[in-house]
Amino acid sequence: MTFPDISIDLKAVMPDLRGRLLANESLAPLTWFRVGGPAQLLFTPADDDDLAYFLARLPKEIPVTVVGVGSNLIVRDGGIEGVVIRLSPRGFGAATANGDTVTAGTAALDKRVAETAAAANISGLEFYFGIPGSIGGALRMNAGANGGETKDVLIAAIGIGRDGTKNSFDNAAMQFVYRNSGVDPSIIFTSAKFRGVIAEPSTIRARMDEVQTHRETAQPIREKTGGSTFKNPPGHSAWKLVDAAGCRGLRVGGAQVSEMHCNFLINTGDATAADIETLGETVRARVLAHSGVDLHWEIKRIGVA
Question: Is there a catalytic annotation at residue 186?
Answer without folding.
Answer: no
